[in-house]
Amino acid sequence: MILSQEQLEWIVREVVRRLRETTGEGDSTADSGNGRLTIAEKLVTIETVRDKLGSVKCVEVPGRAIVTPAVVDWLKDKQIELVRL
Questions:
Q1: For residue 72, which phi and psi values (nearest 5 degrees)?
Q2: Beta strand pairing status for 66-67 and 43-44?
């Protein structure tokens, strides 16, 4: 079975929507003094971190959080460490 780009995007959106429904949304706190961003959400997407990075050097997430591959790649490109708590 070969999926079109449109079908694949729909599937990804639907999975993210369902995960958000089941995990709920948490809070994010940034501490510019030590360059850390702590995210309490159990699903971390680009939208979760997009406008919060600033001078952050480390992003902390719950140990069992789902972090999308796009976020992992984006943090690597920006040389920001991802830490699971």
A1: -60, -45
A2: parallel
Question: What would the DSSP string read from start to end of 14-47?
Answer: HHHHHHHHHH----EEEETTTTEEEE--SEE-HH
Q: Which two tokens stand for residue 58?
A: 């480390």
pLDDT band of 80, cuts 50, 70, 90: very high
Identify the three-state secondary structure at position 84: strand
- What are the domain boundaries of the chain? 25-84
Residue 10 token pair: 């729909």
CA distance 11 to 75: 24
Eight-state DSSP code of residue 51:
T
CA-to-CA dists, residue 34 to 29, 30, 38, 55, 58, angstroms: 12, 9, 11, 9, 9
At 5-17, the pLDDT tens digits run: 888 888 888 887 7
Tell me what percent of the residues of the chain surpass a pLDDT of 70.
84
